[in-house]
C-alpha cells in the first residue's frame, strides 16, 4: 500500500507517465499554431504545467519520429543572420491526428467529470 | 552545419566535443541521416540557448546550455565491446566444462548408492587426494556416509553459480549481451 505521505512521489510518477502520453499532442498543437524551430518549440512547451523542467534535447528525437510518421514536415531555412534553422510544420495528416487526439482528450475529460458526479 | 558553432577557448571546445560524442552515442540507433540532422539541430539549439544567456563567459554559458539540453549518457570505453565478446564466449566454454563436472559429480552421487565401497573421496598416506569410482590401494575414504550430501551440496552451489554466470554473461537479456551490442 502506498504511503499516504508520499503524495508528491505518486504524483511525480503519474505526471511523468502522463507527460509522455500527451507530448506528441502538445507538439502538434504548438505547430498547428504556426511553423516553429526546435528552440521555439521547447520555449513554448516549458510554459505548459509539468514541462517546466523539460530536458530540451528530448524534443528532437520525438520530432524526428513525428516527421517519419508523416505528422510534421521539416525544412532547413537560412536566416538573415546567416545561421540556418530547421522549421517544423504540421501536415494535413498531422492536423487530422491532432483533431482525433483532442476528441479522445475531451472524451476522457468528460468521462472523468462524469465519474466525479456519480461518486 | 555543426561547424557554425565555434568556440574561442580550448575548455569550451573540449566540452562541445564531449557533448557531440554523447549526442552521437545517445542517437546511435537512428540512421545516419537522422543522426546528422539531430546533431545539426542540437548545434543550433545550443547556439540559441547560449544567445539567451547574458551572464557568464563562453564556457559557463555553454555549460548552462548543455545542462538545459539534458543529461546525455557517456559512450562506453572502446574496450568494453571486445571484452564483452570475450567474456561471453569464455563463459559459454566455462559453463560447458563446469557443467560436465557437475554431471560427473551427480553421477558419482548416484553410483555411491550402488557401490558405496568404491565411490568416494580417497586420501593417500602420501597426502594426495582422489575422487574415484573405485577403491584405491593404500588410501582411506574420508567422507563415508557424508559423500552423497557433500557432493549434492557442491553440485547445488556450482549450479547456482553457473546459473548466475549464464544470466550475466550468456543470456540475451544479460548485461554482457547488452554490452556486446553497444
TrEMBL record, chain A:
Gene3D superfamilies: Winged helix-like DNA-binding domain superfamily/Winged helix DNA-binding domain (1.10.10.10)
Residues of the Transcription regulator PadR N-terminal domain: 27-100
Domain of life of the source: Bacteria
Protein name: Transcriptional regulator, PadR family
From TrEMBL, chain B:
Domain of life: Bacteria
Sorted UniProt keywords: Membrane, Transmembrane, Transmembrane helix
Transmembrane segment boundaries: 86-110, 146-166
Name of protein: Uncharacterized protein
Organism of provenance: Maricaulis salignorans
Amino acid at each position: 500500500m502506498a504511503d499516504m505521505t508520499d503524495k508528491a512521489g505518486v504524483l511525480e510518477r503519474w505526471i511523468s507517465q502522463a507527460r509522455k502520453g500527451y507530448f506528441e499532442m502538445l507538439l502538434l498543437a504548438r505547430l498547428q499554431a504556426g511553423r516553429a524551430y526546435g528552440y521555439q518549440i521547447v520555449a513554448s512547451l516549458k510554459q505548459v504545467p509539468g514541462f517546466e523542467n523539460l530536458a530540451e534535447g528530448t524534443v528532437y528525437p520525438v520530432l524526428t519520429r513525428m516527421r517519419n510518421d508523416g505528422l510534421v514536415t521539416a525544412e532547413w531555412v537560412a536566416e538573415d543572420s546567416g545561421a540556418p534553422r530547421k522549421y517544423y510544420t504540421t501536415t494535413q495528416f498531422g492536423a487530422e491526428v491532432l483533431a482525433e487526439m483532442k476528441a479522445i482528450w475531451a472524451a476522457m475529460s468528460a468521462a472523468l467529470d462524469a465519474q466525479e458526479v456519480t461518486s | 552545419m555543426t561547424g557554425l558553432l565555434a568556440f574561442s577557448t580550448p575548455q569550451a571546445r573540449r566540452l562541445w566535443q564531449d557533448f557531440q560524442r554523447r549526442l552521437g552515442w545517445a542517437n546511435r540507433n537512428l540512421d545516419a541521416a537522422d543522426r546528422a540532422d539531430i546533431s545539426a539541430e542540437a548545434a543550433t539549439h545550443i547556439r540559441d540557448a547560449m544567445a539567451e544567456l547574458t551572464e557568464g563567459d563562453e564556457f559557463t554559458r555553454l555549460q548552462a546550455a548543455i545542462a538545459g539540453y539534458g543529461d546525455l549518457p557517456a559512450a562506453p570505453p572502446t574496450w568494453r565491446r571486445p571484452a564483452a565478446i570475450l567474456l561471453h564466449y569464455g563463459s559459454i566454454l566455462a559453463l560447458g566444462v563446469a557443467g560436465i563436472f557437475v554431471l560427473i559429480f551427480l553421477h558419482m552421487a548416484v553410483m555411491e548408492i550402488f557401490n558405496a565401497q568404491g565411490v568416494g573421496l580417497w586420501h593417500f598416506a602420501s597426502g594426495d587426494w582422489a575422487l574415484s569410482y573405485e577403491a584405491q590401494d593404500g588410501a582411506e575414504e574420508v567422507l563415508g556416509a557424508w559423500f552423497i550430501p557433500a557432493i549434492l551440496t557442491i553440485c547445488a552451489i556450482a549450479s547456482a553459480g553457473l546459473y548466475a554466470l549464464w544470466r550475466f554473461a550468456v543470456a540475451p537479456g544479460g548485461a554482457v549481451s547488452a554490452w556486446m551490442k553497444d
